[in-house]
Amino acid sequence: MTLSKKATAADAVVGIDVAFDDLEQLLLALRATPGTRLALLHTSGQVMAATVDLNSVGGDTQPMLSTINEPQLQHLRDVSKDADMPQLIEIDGQRWVGLHTQIDIGLGDSLDLLQMLPFDELAADARRRALYYIGMAVALALLLLPLGWAAGKAIGRSINLLRERSLRIARFDFTGEPLPPSRVSEVGELSQAMQHMGGTIEAFLGLTESLATEPEVERMLQLVLEQLTQATQSEAAAVYLWDAQSACMQYCAKAGTIATPLPERFTYPPLPAVHASDSPLHMVNRLDLELRGRQGGLQGLLVLEFKDDVAHKDAAFQRFARRLSGMLAVAIETRQLLESQRRLFDAIIQLMADAIDAKSPYTGGHCERVPQMAIELADRLHATCDGPYANFRMSENERYAFHLGAWLHDCGKVTSPEHIVDKATKLEVIRNRIHEVRLRFEILWRDAELAAVRGELDSKQLSTRQQQLQDDFAFVASCNLGGEFLSDESIARLRSIGVQGWQRHFDDRLGLSTAELRQLDALRPETPPLPAMEALLADLPEHRVPWGDDRPAVEAGDPRNKFGFDMKLPPYQQNLGELHNLSIRRGTLSEEDRFKINDHMVQTYIMLKGLPWPTGLEQVPELAATHHERLDGKGYPRRIPGERLGVLDRVMAICDVFEALTAADRPYKPPKTLSETLRIMALMCKELHLDAELFRYFLRTRLWEDFAARFMKPEQHDAVDLNALEALLPPQSETACDAYL
Predict the structure, then answer these.
(1) What is the number of other CB atoms lying within 10 angstroms of the CB of residue 581?
(2) pLDDT tens profile 509-541
(3) Any one Gene Ontology biological process term (predicted)?
(4) Which of 202, 224, 278, 497 has the smallest number of CB atoms closer than 10 Å to its CB?
(5) Are 228 and 200 in contact (CB under 8 A)?
């Protein structure tokens, strides 16, 4: 086959000759499978080359496609429409893949290349290749299976641990050991995120618990800072409290190691934030957050130091930290409010104690001295580690309850009449009635003088009568003081003196109040004619004031008695009878006066029981109103048996008696010396009034010496023989404290 073309740049012709045999060899080389049929045709239909031997056809020229024995190629030429597009053709039940390709040879002429490939031969090769690749895949899978199993097991273990951790979190269990590291980065990151999330939630719960349960601000802040540091994944934290008076921030607590030095105190506004480049120790950043309460008031400053990483630079971290700091601010505000209310409450209680002492100047600082001594003795008992009180301990609430009870132990005295509390003489009411008695003696003196003037008495008889009046008044005046025990003979002499008469010339109803007139009319309807003879010392009906509607509910059988009082009620609310009061055998208080004094315990208990004490302080009324009870059950106001009296009740009793005996500001008795006081208290222990074991501890700790140095006069300080006091006490029992510890 010859091809030629004239060259464009010169007068020349370019030609090429191709032998048909060479074309046949080329087509044979292009066969994809042994059964592939190929033919190269001219547009005229002549076969230029084919994979069959064209010489067997015969003729001088190239044969036509129809003359060679290639029905597959003929069929392809007849049915093919789109060149260069493979076609699946079925001929006599056999599938072929045919491809008709046009080849442009220039000069407007072209050749057609026909290819017919047996589908089975093509599929057989594909199956061989598929089997080869499948074999390779199986071999590779067998090789990688152990490695995959090991890797899958490791990943599965990590995922299973993550699953268990997530289930614990779903069950509200945020604790747990850190998960082991994983070689799979995604699993490791997820594990670390889960760990941080659980730790943050647990820290947040701990922070909430500390805010809710810890009453002390300093301790609460320390616990909260530790939890806050963990929750925010910070390196350290510190908190300042705002001192409004000095307009300064005062350092309070910290957690972790602060990289940058912080001042103990600084003037507001807050310190400037420190950046990582400013830190001399390690790369840290700092965030300063103002702590403000519900009303926006400044409470303090929270300082957080954290690593210079992406998480802490995110705005979400600052929002999270600000929200946590808001909880801390409210907690500080609440604690400070509670503390201020507590200080106010304590101040009101001490104000009441001071008011009682101020109301009765003769009891001086009793309501102040007794609490100080009692609290100090209770603290010493709490601190002891051996002896019968080694197991005695007070919680913070119990100590505060005792503190309140000690300061309120005589609050009922606000209801006690002042003239009875301060009664220094037997005839004293609002005033000392001895002056009235003396005036009557003056009248009798003048009567004697008038009798002498009238000649009824001579000078000797006058002198004798006046001397008798002097002696009788001196005796009555000495009985009025109540310094010594009054014998039966003395009482008989009082009555003989009292029957002397004096003449009253004025109406005793004049100047009386409406109540006094009403009482006098009921007792003495008819007025005696004047002048009237009156006894020198009398117990008149109007001296006796009945209870009436004011009868207190303190008797054991009284249905109105709901507090368990057990006191004997005197027959009258008040008895001002002169002989009745002058005949008091010991001291200056009558039975009615003594009840009115003892009634302060009743009023103390009723007043305190009526208050809504919070949890932990319910025992304040008991602690305040039991220091006049006795171990033998004969005390007042409730006759509580000794086994029901606790250590703190007994502490109050001892301190109250010691202060009462040593007080130098009581008008009705001189103060006792130390030795006298302790001897009296030892005898009271023997009589089961006071606790002997606690009194021994009181002596051993020498608290009485400390109290004497602070409050007693120098002349009251004398030598104390502890061995002599021990001899007066009942025998020591090893189990003496078991019933009330």
Answers:
(1) 27
(2) 777 777 777 877 887 877 888 888 888 888 888
(3) signal transduction
(4) 278
(5) no
Q: Can you read off the two tokens belonging to residue 502?
A: 């004096």
CB 639 within 8 A of CB 566: yes
Show the 3-state SS of 389-455. Answer: HCCCCCCHHHHHHHHHHHHCCCHHHHHCCHHHHCCCCCCECCCECHHHHHHHHHHHHHHHHHHHHCC
634-663 pLDDT tens trace: 988 889 998 999 999 999 999 999 988 888
Cα–Cα distance between 637 and 648 in angstroms, integer? Answer: 17
Closest CA to 712 of 689, 668, 683, 678: 678
Q: Are 50 and 36 in contact (CB under 8 A)?
A: no
**Which tokens hold the place of 696?**
């021994």
Rounded Cα–Cα distance for residues 32 and 122 (Å): 8
Largest CA-CA distance found in the chain, in angstroms, rounded: 212
Cα 375 to Cα 651: distance, rounded to the nearest angstrom: 9
Give the whole-angstrom CA distance, residue 229 versus residue 235: 7
Q: Please state, in angstroms and as integers, the Cα–Cα distance from residue 244 to each residue in 297, 300, 333, 430, 498, following that order.
A: 10, 10, 13, 51, 72
The 10 Å Cβ neighbour count of residue 351 is 11
| 633, 642 Cβ separation under 8 angstroms | yes
CA distances from 361 to 94, 364, 598, 600, 711 (A): 136, 5, 19, 17, 16
CB 628 within 8 A of CB 598: yes
* pTM (whole model) above 0.90: no
Q: How far apart are CA 728 and CA 681, in angstroms?
A: 10
Tokens read off for 392: 């005695």
- Helix (H) or strand (E) holding 465, with range, is helix 459-481
C-alpha 463, offset from chain centre: 84
Q: What is the pLDDT of residues 678-701, one digit of tens each?
A: 999 999 999 999 999 999 999 999
Alpha carbon distance 581, 428 (integer Å) = 9
Q: Which domains does the chain have, with CATH numbers?
A: 2-124 (3.30.450.20), 192-341 (3.30.450.40), 366-415+602-728 (1.10.3210.10), 434-588 (no CATH)
Report DSSP state, residue 40: E
The CA distances from residue 422 to 100, 581, 593, 625, in Å, are 139, 15, 11, 21
Tell me the one-letter amino acid at 486.
Answer: L
Is the CB of residue 663 less than 8 Å from the CB of residue 712? no
In single-letter form, the type of residue at position 423 comes to K
